[in-house]
Amino acid sequence: MTKKYAPATLRNREPIREVLSDELGQDGVLLEIAAGTGEHAVYLSRAFPDWQWQPTDPDADALASIAAWRAEDGPPNLLPPVRLDASASEWPVARADAILCVNMTHISPIAASEGLFAGAGRLLSSGAPLLIYGPFIEADVQTSASNMQFDESLKARDPSWGLRELAWLDGLAAAEGFHRTARHAMPANNLTVVYRKT
Description:
By secondary structure, the chain is of the alpha/beta class. It has helices at residues 8-23, 39-47, 60-73, 110-123, 145-157, 166-175; strands spanning 28-33, 51-57, 82-83, 98-102, 129-134, 136-137, 164-165, 178-186, 190-197. It is 38% helix and 24% strand. It has a seven-stranded mixed sheet with strand order 3-2-1-4-5-9-8, with helices on both faces.
């Protein structure tokens, strides 16, 4: 199994931990959507030992990387990775008390974001948080030059990718019975936005 590395993880893992410490309850099952390399899963599951941490990803290489990180450095509450496509109408998980999604919405088709909220609507109970990290476009905030360039480069790689408007995400949330309760500024012009089921 081959571990993969995402350089941004070292920059954002502690700010994400700080947000989670504010937003999570005492314990439960956290479902991580699009866990990627698995570096966040190892770091954050260790920081929240009373939470069972379920990493998922649709990509076989990512799942192998998560498994490798877990085998080498994973705490007892980090569960084996599960293949999950956010856009699927059914998810192979039975329970979640919180959902975390880092850096997915802009590097996936819109169906993945739509599926993220639909899946969260099926799994989360009233008041439970869905936390989404990434770069977004906000109507009342000037988009940084670096994020504009990033958006253009993403669309050049795949026309279905690109930075999403936060208002659009808010609309997806409302359609599934969620409302945005927090907006946390993060490093490198990113945000963590928190939605809770009403």
